[in-house]
Amino acid sequence: MNGSVSNILTASEVVRSDIRSSFGSSTTTAPGLPVQLTITLVNSNMACAPLEGYAIYIWHCDAGGNYSLYSSGVQNENYLRGVQVTDANGQVTFTTVFPGCYSGRYPHIHFEIYPSLAAATSYASSALISQMAMPSAVCQAIYNNVSAYSQSISNFASISTSTDNVFDSSTAAQLAQQTPSLAGSTSSGYTGTILIGIGA
């Protein structure tokens, strides 16, 4: 997009649990294996008490390694982007697809956390901006067995968390915290959970 920025957070339709399809002028569904991901947000300064009312925005590439709004061919799509507000248990659940592996990056999901939905949709100061590292064994299983991810095989073989320019500075303990736990299969999809702590 020639260096331009699209602020999808200002669109009311971005608040949704199923982020697999675009909204607005397109209803295209992103290619990829289904994943249901539950994120639990806790206060790391208060004995990991759940944080209610926080907005969590996630986005990531599709099975082909393409980002809606930005990658060639999908600039007019806005799939795989969504916001939800944490409940009394500090949780949100997104229905999405497993991200592909594009050249130069370890497979990941981006996320931003805001103290409220109003803060997120007005793109005010975020409480945390970070990324999740996808489990290596699950990456291998999906990339080698699901046809939509065929281009990810060679890309994944050429990268690791230790050579990735985001995850390379993380300790083993930090990587474990940044990696969601996933269970499922390459035929039916996966469900997963991750715990995120912030100093609220």
Give the topology string: H per helix, E per strand.
EEEEEEHEHHHEE
| pLDDT averaged residue by residue | 93
Outline, from the CA principal axes? globular
- Name of the CATH architecture: Sandwich
Question: How many structural domains?
Answer: 1
Rounded Rg: 16 Å
Number of helices: 4
Taking the alpha carbons of the first and last residues, their distance comes to 36 Å
Description:
This protein is of the alpha+beta class and 200 residues long. The chain has one domain (8-198): Sandwich (Protocatechuate 3,4-Dioxygenase, subunit A), CATH 2.60.130. Helices cover 14% and strands 28% of the residues. The protein contains four helices and nine strands; from the N terminus they run E-E-E-E-E-E-H-E-H-H-H-E-E. Strands 1, 2, 5, 8 and 9 form a five-stranded mixed beta sheet that branches. It has a four-stranded antiparallel beta sheet with strand order 4-3-6-7. The longest helix is centred in the last third of the chain and has 10 residues, at 136-145. Mean pLDDT is 93; it is low at 1-5.
